[in-house]
Amino acid sequence: MLKIKYLFTILCLLQIAGSYAQTFTNPLLSSGADPYSYYKDGYYYYTHTTGNRVDLWKTKTLDGLKDAERKTIWRAPAGTLYSKEIWAPEVMFLRGKWYAYFAADDGKNENHRMYVLENASADPMKGAWIFKGKIADPTDKWAIDGDVIDFKGQLYMIWSGWEGDENGKQEIFIARLKNPWTVAGKRVKISTPKFSWEKIGDLGGGAHVDVNEGPQFLLHGDKIFIIYSASGCWTDFYALGMLSASAKSNLLDPASWTKSDQPVFQQSPKDGVYAPGHNSFFKSPDGKEDWILYHANDKPGQGCGGFRSPRAQKFSWNADGTPNFGTPVKAGLSLTSPSN
User: Fold this and answer.
1) How far apart are CA 314 and CA 289, in angstroms?
2) Structural domains in the chain?
3) Choosing from 105, 137, 147, 213, which is the catalytic residue?
4) Is-catalytic flag, 34?
5) Distance (Å, whole) CA 74 – CA 274
6) How far apart are CA 237 and CA 200, in angstroms?
7) With left for phi above 0 and alpha for psi between -120 and 50, is residue 51 left, alpha or beta?
8) For 10-14, 188-192, 251-255, 305-309, which range has the lowest pLDDT when averaged over its residues?
């Protein structure tokens, strides 16, 4: 009898200890803008903007990101059109290989374009990352923040781009891909800044930019969503907007997409979270939970610099099938880790 009680006590203690281990707090790292995570075979593969290279983290748990294996998978060569200002990398597994997408330029923002790396290894921390080159539609206009999806057997890419050759308005475009590194056909504009909350972008000196950027695909039921960041990241009003379409619709038809008239995720001054945005999504290890990964600032006025830090939180779904992201959680608050 004593042995049974002893074993019961040990099991209870282990359960309690396990419950404490299965929590984490935001931010996940002290700094890191434009965070992206891809979950595969028991590991999170995480990346964010580093400026002159593409770094990749590998971890089994979110709270382990601080101590995770980290590797520079590609460093920009000097003297090219893609040597500087490497922004918003995404590393994902498509059709049997790993691909990394990122924006880069030669030090002049007007030359930002999207580029692709490929790795045939089963583990993206191993093997060789091959530079596949620029990925662009025939107009070859300014482009950043690419995201790719394999939807019903067809690859699509969305990105933030300029209509012409001058800054002033960032819009969301979509195109089919022939393969993970080649655009097939023309780009189609599916979002332009329309509402007042998308147009907060004064730069001083009379300069102003309206912004739709950082688009991310999100699937649920019979709907497909694009969650994007709106207004300037240099403002506290950087927020997430949403485009919705039927999964049965023609994704290349602008009429298929409906824009929500209010932001779906925005700053929470009472919780000390400002300018939340440039998000990505991932599932919990057991596939039952949906999570949003985003960056934000701890104080007002911190802008687009190194104060931005990556954060994650679980989100739910509304009765109409749309995502409910809630409000950004306060830094330091203990959260239950993604379910196993």
Assistant:
1) 7
2) 32-330 (2.115.10.20)
3) 213
4) yes
5) 31
6) 7
7) left
8) 10-14
Residue 9's H or E segment, with its range, is helix 2-21
Catalytic residue among 34, 55, 90, 145: 34
pLDDT digits (tens, 9 = 90+) for 198-255: 999 999 999 999 999 999 999 999 999 999 999 999 999 999 999 999 999 999 999 9
Provide the edge-to-edge strand list for the sheet that holds 290-297.
274-283, 290-297, 309-317, 323-324
Q: What is the DSSP string of 170-210?
A: -EEEEEEEEETTEEEEEEEEEE---SGGG---EEETTEE-B
Cβ burial of 117 (10 Å; 0-12, 13-18, 19+) is buried
Joined together, the tokens standing for residue 210 give 């309206």
Q: Is 110 a catalytic residue?
A: no
Place of tokens 């959680």: 329
What DSSP element (H or E) covers 105?
strand 97-105
How do residues 134-178 score in pLDDT, each as one tens digit? Answer: 999 999 999 999 999 999 999 999 999 999 999 999 999 999 999
Q: Which of 119, 130, 113 is nearest to 94 (CA)?
A: 119
| Alpha-helix runs per DSSP H in 22-130 | none
d(C-alpha 248, C-alpha 264), whole Å: 23
